[in-house]
């Protein structure tokens, strides 16, 4: 199966203010996006891909610098989401550090980077911004919206906020809201960042520094939750880095320690600290049932899309139980929904990997979407 090849990001400017859930309004913002495949004459074959925490608009193909799209194994000619059939759109969310307007950009009111003053954004705000982009592209209705993890929350929100614009929703390795444990992990990661001496209350750009220590720890915490115990054991076990104990409390002794430090170091080189705070807060806030007294079925009542909900057995961060909550609410509404729980050893990261059963499922589902 081929890749979509070299791709170039596009950018679109929006002058009209976007009303946010917080009550604030964001004007003069840019959204960066990529498209793959060809929009048909009826404009009926568009599929929107929503990204998770540290991903971006770069979903498939390769940039000129060699960077591969984060879901390239899924999207492309002849792949499960076939760009010979579908017009696929990846959008970078507001508040990100990968091109769309965010904390690193200049606040027009001050002439300085937004930093910590960038308004808090929510899943619902992202969905509304994505809808404006689709308006500008002349796409009234999506053949499908798909996302994993935080992206799955956006897919779910699409079916509530813009129900007439979504034919199918694929909600993968996601949840109707975060558990207390998940919020706790996010808070520990945020505290690691804000207590870094280089954070400077979120205005570290003016000081010419980056709170890398906090970012490293935040990434290490997050990465642990993305892997299952089984996959971590199989990959690292108790293997020592240098073959023997050094009897040190500060040196790297185990291979798993070396791996986590490497992941943290790499993350601190490219991700923005304020963006991390914003996106984890958006995760915390997502809870469509809150406005309905906790009744998820009532929250999903506006949805008219057909659903595919997918979970993975060893995903303990967004466990199958949470996906089944979504399925039950949809069944209570007599909504058309298919559910698959895939026995995979990889933990939460399974939604990004090339599992043959998982990809066969998505291929089959998109063939049905295309046939309709």
TrEMBL record:
Acyltransferase is among the record's keywords: yes
GO cellular component: cytoplasm
UniProtKB keywords: Acyltransferase, Amino-acid biosynthesis, Cytoplasm, Methionine biosynthesis, Transferase
Main location: cytoplasm
GO biological process, one term: methionine biosynthetic process
Residue intervals of the AB hydrolase-1 domain: 45-354
Classification via NCBIfam families: homoserO_Ac_trn (TIGR01392), PRK00175.1 (NF001209)
Quaternary organization: Homodimer.
UniProt xrefs under HAMAP family: MetX_acyltransf (MF_00296)
Protein's job: Transfers a succinyl group from succinyl-CoA to L-homoserine, forming succinyl-L-homoserine.
Record's protein name: Homoserine O-succinyltransferase
The species this protein was found in: Rivibacter subsaxonicus
